[in-house]
């Protein structure tokens, strides 16, 4: 592999036909991994981190009664561990991204995954309620930053036109966690106790750190990187608008999925024993969306793919209001709703294009936005149900959030065209 001494090449990326190319500085050393490390092994290591984080984030949802019994607290109190983890993600993503911007990216990823693993091992030892929610908060801190930095590293290993595919491969670990990691950890937790689930997650995190050390190339920190330069990204209206699309438009999926179990049981009459089958359908949809999404972006422009996904989301979520009454139609609809995950890699690449040299912070903030979408969607869906509109009202809530995301999308497109004049 050729080396350069302090020189950088630049990649011109045109993210929208109406916008001027974004010139992204890329160190020559970042462009390709060492020839001794196959690129596919690098992506396995990066995706393994997503698998660990996805398993750790979602497994507690199926173990809340076990946690409540083990700590002698109520189920709603145990549920606070979910909220504090999400809060850790929202706070940790920008904080750690700025603090670690000068670290070589492989070392940064190892440190983030070590923090995640230690947080989960410590959660398994939590003696009580307050210690558990505190440790779940700490476990969530590296979540968004890991995905952001891993996406940047993955994108640096491929040609510019393959960036969406690279980000999709990194995110594939998260979607596979919903199919395999969460059921495995939940089953272990029910068999050996909920603490065993966190031990397993910590072990996967430790394995990830080792794989990243062995298989991910030693990508240096961006030339001239500094916390102030990263924070400069916050002055860009396009960064905020892109984050808004994710925080609002992606919330629709969570409005429906957060209440999928009671909706299927109360409206469609699905037996509780069959609910995992529907959850598996959702996971299959997510995996399919992660694989198909990059091809969709490759077949059209990035902005058209984002807008099209928001329309697709609004239609699917609105349809759930009607299909929820039929076990078969609901299953097809749930499978299709999982494909909405397509928007994740597309928004990640959009942020890379508009953030200039503040790549690390912008990439990490994307996952803060997604967790805000999770919280907002679940809360608004709950408001509609509590107000007496019924379980299926979450479909309308989700569709409205997707439409609100479309408004943000049109605002972003108008802003980009105005600045290009």
TrEMBL record:
Residue ranges occupied by any Major facilitator superfamily (MFS) profile domain in the UniProt entry: 42-417
Tell me where the transmembrane regions lie.
Answer: 39-62, 82-101, 108-129, 141-158, 170-188, 194-216, 237-261, 273-293, 305-322, 328-347, 368-389, 395-412
Principal location: membrane
Annotated localization = Cell membrane
Could you name the Gene Ontology cellular component terms for this entry?
A: plasma membrane
- Its source organism is Pandoraea iniqua
- UniProt protein name: MFS transporter
Give the Gene3D superfamilies listed for this entry. Answer: MFS general substrate transporter like domains (1.20.1250.20)
Q: Could you tell me the superkingdom of the organism this chain comes from?
A: Bacteria
């Amino acid at each position: 592999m050729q080396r350069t001494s302090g020189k950088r090449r630049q990649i011109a990326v045109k993210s929208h036909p109406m916008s001027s190319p974004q010139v992204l500085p890329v160190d020559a050393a970042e462009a390709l991994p060492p020839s001794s490390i196959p690129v596919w092994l690098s992506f396995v290591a990066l995706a393994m981190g997503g698998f660990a984080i996805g398993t750790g984030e979602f497994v507690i949802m199926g173990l809340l009664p076990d946690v409540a019994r083990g700590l002698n607290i109520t189920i709603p109190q145990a549920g606070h561990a979910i909220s504090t983890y999400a809060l850790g993600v929202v706070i940790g993503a920008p904080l750690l991204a700025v603090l670690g911007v000068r670290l070589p990216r492989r070392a940064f990823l190892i440190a983030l995954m070590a923090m995640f693993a230690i947080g989960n091992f410590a959660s398994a030892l939590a003696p009580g309620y307050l210690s558990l929610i505190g440790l779940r908060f700490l476990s969530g801190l590296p979540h968004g930053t890991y995905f952001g930095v891993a996406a940047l590293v993955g994108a640096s290993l491929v040609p510019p036109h393959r960036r969406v595919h690279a980000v999709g491969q990194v995110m594939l670990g998260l979607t596979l966690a919903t199919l395999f990691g969460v059921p495995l950890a939940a089953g272990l937790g029910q068999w050996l106790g909920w603490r065993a689930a966190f031990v397993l997650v910590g072990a996967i995190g430790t394995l990830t750190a080792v794989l990243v050390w062995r298989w991910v190339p030693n990508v240096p920190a961006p030339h001239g990187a500094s916390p102030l330069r990263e924070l400069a990204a916050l002055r860009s209206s396009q960064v905020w608008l892109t984050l808004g699309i994710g925080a609002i438009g992606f919330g629709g999926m969570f409005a429906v999925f957060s209440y999928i179990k009671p909706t299927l049981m109360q409206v469609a009459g699905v037996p509780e024993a069959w609910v995992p089958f529907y959850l598996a359908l959702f996971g299959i949809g997510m995996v399919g969306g992660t694989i198909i999404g990059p091809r969709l972006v490759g077949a059209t422009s990035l902005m058209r793919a984002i807008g099209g996904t928001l329309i697709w989301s609004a239609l699917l979520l609105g349809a759930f209001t009607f299909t929820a009454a039929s076990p078969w139609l609901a299953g097809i609809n749930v499978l299709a709703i999982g494909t909405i995950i397509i928007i994740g890699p597309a928004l990640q690449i959009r942020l890379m294009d508009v953030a200039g040299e503040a790549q690390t912070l912008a990439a990490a903030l994307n996952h803060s936005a997604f967790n805000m979408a999770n919280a907002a969607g679940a809360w608004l869906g709950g408001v509609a149900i509590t107000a007496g509109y019924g379980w299926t009202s979450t479909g309308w809530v989700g569709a409205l959030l997707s439409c609100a995301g479309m408004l943000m999308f049109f605002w972003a497109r108008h802003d980009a065209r105005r600045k290009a004049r």
